[in-house]
């Protein structure tokens, strides 16, 4: 029966691709695919039904969200239209655990879907997660570089204005959030120009260097050192000169011993000695 059902849908799918009477909009909304038995897919899609949470499992939506990248990989990007509505439903679920699960895997889904579908369908969801609870935001923050590197350069630059918002958390004692931000900024140095680094990433790095938690500061020292190295290798020397002058003025000549100590710690990195 499963094979007959599958062959039936394969036949219908071929008809859709050859029949010119179907508009692109109708074809997009169709849930027909020829990869797995349609009944199996329908059962998966029904996991977002609120009644299933009451009768089957209260966390069934979370399980659905956890499995979605695997289902998307199995069906392929050509069948994303079968999962799009379900994904959007999960992304707006009232349970933060469901949204958190999607936030941690959105970069994997972006690889599966490609740049066009990512820009059209995933970027709006990604933007929503950026404004969500910290428990959800940490998911996109941990894979910020992995997601942004898949976007077009112009689209990627739009997030430069939002990086500063990661310094603000629901709980100021959540230092691991800021530590993760510093780690991600090190990776993001390869995605942006020298001017973008100086204008947008430099202020964040300096703020993290003065963090109250030592673990955050230590990662930030590495961030600043890598930033100096990146600007030193750029074609325009103005940025690295200005950055070095600011380091000297802000930390080396600081009236507090902790500021001067920060300068020494940053100078422990070999690349900074080369620049000096």
From TrEMBL:
GO terms for molecular function: protein phosphatase regulator activity. The keyword Repeat applies. Keywords: Repeat. Residues 10-33 are annotated as: Disordered. One of its GO terms (cellular component) is cytoplasm. The keyword Repeat applies. This is PP4R1 phosphatase. It comes from Sitta europaea (Eurasian nuthatch).
